[in-house]
Specification:
Number of helices: 5
Number of strands: 6
Radius of gyration: 13 Å
Strand order of the largest sheet: 2-3-1-4-5-6
Largest sheet: 6 strands, mixed
Structural class: alpha/beta
Strand content: 15-25%
Distance between the termini: 8 Å
Length: about 140
């Protein structure tokens, strides 16, 4: 599997996805610092939400093969900037999370917003139910 870094706002599903990708027990915990689990780097949501930490994400991403921008479609705020993917030196993939909790309209809007960041491709998943995970994992194993 590609070495990846997970980026997204607080409670968007980064740690749950990290646990799912690495075959770990689903156990919610608040990520307080960068955590490396096998080939996955889990980041605190504050790294995206507080612009002064963005450089840390960019520097950490240099040693990865891809950045995953995660977006919870049920959240009413959007923390990414248009074209933000271009700030990274590796490909950026979009991941709409929590599709089991969102309406189709929310999922479509989140998908479109991730495309505006420059993320390509964009996957729609539920880490809890497992929907969309096979496609994401297959892509990460290419």
């Amino acid at each position: 599997m590609k070495k990846i870094i997970l980026v997204g706002s607080v409670a968007c599903g980064k740690t749950t996805l990290c646990q799912r990708l690495n075959g770990l027990k689903q156990d919610y915990k608040k990520t307080q610092a960068l955590e490396v689990v096998n080939h996955t780097i889990d980041t605190p949501g504050e790294y995206l939400e507080h612009r002064s930490y963005l450089r840390s994400l960019m520097v950490t991403a240099v040693d990865t093969e891809a950045v995953l921008f995660l977006l919870d479609p049920t959240q009413e705020r959007f923390m990414y900037s248009p074209g933000q993917a271009s700030a990274f030196s590796v490909p950026v993939i979009g991941v709409v999370t929590k599709t089991d909790l969102a309406t189709q309209k929310q999922i479509s809007q989140a998908h479109e917003l991730l495309e505006l960041t420059g993320a390509d491709p964009v996957f729609e998943i539920s880490s809890i139910e497992g929907t969309g995970m096979d496609e994401l994992i297959a892509f990460l194993e290419e």
